[in-house]
Amino acid sequence: MVVYGHAIGVMPVVEKWIFSFHMPLFFLVSGFLIKPEYLEHGFKPFFIKTTKALIPPYIIFAVAFYLFWLFVGRHIGQDAELSTDLISPFLAILYGTGSHSSMQLYPIVLWFFPCLYMTHLMTYFIVRKKLYVTFAVSVVLLTIGFLIPKNVALPFEFEEALVAQFFVVLGFVANREKVVEYVGRHQPYIWGALLVVFGSLVGLWNGRVDMRSSNYGNFGYFLCSSVLVTFGLALLFYKLPRCKLAELLSKNTILIFPMHFFVYSCFEFLYIHILNNFAIRENIMVAFLSSILNCLILLAVSPLFRKYIPWTYGIKETVKGKL
Q1: Which of 72, 175, 202, 261 is most enclosed, with most CB atoms within 10 A?
Q2: Residue-wise pLDDT tens digits, 219-228
């Protein structure tokens, strides 16, 4: 949905529906996958583990794309018409922002890495409290995130992380308390479908959501829609058999997320110089098929990244503790 939502020819109503919940879903799943034992050995081991998992791929992709922009990207397409100075995109890497008006990450999707990083570090302290304290603290931070003006860009996407931590905490608690497992034993498909339908209607009723730029529309509608659709999807998929393609996609999310914009740029090059029809990218069917092809291409090249640039998947430690 992230890849498809970034295609040019997506119908506005479909794009609005996807953006109403797809990033909250990402953060909630991330929290769902945090193992409770990671929080039992002090902050330092958790900090090191989180840093090794997210900072190396962020730096690698950010620097690689900056060099691409510096020597190629800024000379073609819409970037050729802009007067961006050479240092601002590099400063954005150090500042870790996709929202600042004078310096932005290239491509903009890299905002997710610093945001998720800050979110996980906050989650460590939030979920170690009693359940009611955990939710109280999380809601307070969420409210602060909502109240920060849109034109404010804090280091490492901290303003978005204040909102995103709510979904990470929600996912972590849902896993720890076996919420999905419990509901999944009682008509999961019916409840899942109802939650997705009702949450989707609320999301379409709301304004256009974009977490990266702190556009949430109505805060109540945003929370209601994203939480309902996310848990609805969890219930719909809860009892489905394992799928190798889904597992392959999940294992390569950290590659697909930043690289799919580059693949779309390659498609646009073909539209212009091979097909001589740049407007074809606005076709609904082309948008859908190109998003699928985009993912398949990145899955096909993922073994090369794992072999030659393994740090794009974070730094893993072996059983012996060596890199």
Answers
A1: 202
A2: 999 999 999 9
> Is the residue at 320 inside a domain?
no
Tell me whether residue 319 is in a domain. no
Phi, psi of 289, deg, nearest 5: -70, -35
Instruction: Quote the CA–CA distance of 130 and 112 in Å, as a whole number.
Output: 29
Give pLDDT tens digits for 233-279: 988 888 888 899 999 999 999 999 999 988 998 898 888 888 888 88
The encoded tokens of residue 274 equal: 């091979």
Q: Which of 133, 158, 177 is the last residue of a domain?
A: 177
Q: How confident is the model at residue 103 (pLDDT cuts 50, 70, 90)?
A: confident
- The structure's pTM equals 0.91
Token pair recorded at residue 77: 């397409």
Same domain, 232 and 145: no
Pair 21, 230: CB distance under 8 Å: yes
Burial 256-293 (b: 16+ CB within 10 A, else e): bbbbbbbbbeebbeebeeeeeeeebbeeeebbbebbee
Residues spanned by the domain of 184: 11-21+178-240
DSSP state of 215: B
Distance, CA of 162 to CA of 140 (rounded, Å): 9
